[in-house]
Design brief:
CATH superfamily: SecB-like
CATH architecture: Roll
CATH class: Alpha Beta
Shape: flat
Helix content: 10-25%
Strand content: 25-35%
Radius of gyration: 27 Å
Number of helices: 2
CATH topology: Bacterial Protein-export protein SecB
Structural class: alpha+beta
Number of domains: 1
Strand order of the largest sheet: 1-4-3-2-5
Distance between the termini: 98 Å
């Protein structure tokens, strides 16, 4: 005589369901086939405000809103590109530090597939380079009396970035010279 324990059910094969099918794997990421040739600091100027010795040593390292500019250049064969980033303090904000840094990134197509270089420059170059610029600002200002300045991240939008057409890779030098010769003191 078998007794069933109260509350216990016997299962039958129809009580079991097949496990759900796994979601299809996402398509493999495609290599944009863009290579970074170089990212380098072109110029950096740094100074304290005129009243640096009148301020307490524990004064926060504030610079207020900063000017962030970018420029892009693309060769006519669309195989070589250049991006410049600049960050500078604004004197009307009365920052404890005055700084102006320029950084250049050189990019080129590394294969026939992938996204067009112009599209990459518009959508990714500035965002890719900005952490390098933030690090340069923090390193430079760390040597100041009031410690480092940590720039806030930015949201770079393609419409914010002016273009300069570059005829050949050699003329990138001319674009670079033109970017460097632009006024370095923000108004």
């Amino acid at each position: 005589m078998s007794r069933k324990k109260p509350g216990r059910k016997h299962s039958s094969p129809k009580d079991f369901e097949a496990p759900p099918k796994p979601a299809p794997a996402p398509p493999p990421a495609t290599d944009p086939q863009i290579a970074i040739g170089q990212i380098f600091l072109v110029s950096a100027t740094f100074s304290h405000s005129a009243d640096v010795l009148d301020m307490p040593a524990d004064t926060p390292a504030r610079v207020g809103d900063v000017l962030v500019q970018s420029q892009l250049g693309l060769s006519t064969d669309m195989q070589h590109g250049i991006a410049q980033l600049r960050v500078a303090t604004k004197r009307e904000n009365k920052p404890v530090y005055h700084l102006d840094l320029h950084m250049i990134g050189i990019f080129h197509k590394s294969g026939p597939q992938g996204i067009p270089l112009g599209q990459f420059l518009e959508t990714s170059a500035v965002s890719m380079m900005y952490p390098f610029l933030r690090e340069a600002v923090a390193n430079l200002t760390q040597r100041g009396r009031f410690g480092p300045v940590w720039l806030n991240p930015i949201n770079a939008r393609p419409s914010d970035t002016p273009w300069k057409r570059v005829e050949t890779p050699e003329s990138m030098r001319q674009v670079f010279e033109g970017m460097r010769d632009e006024p370095s003191t923000p108004e």
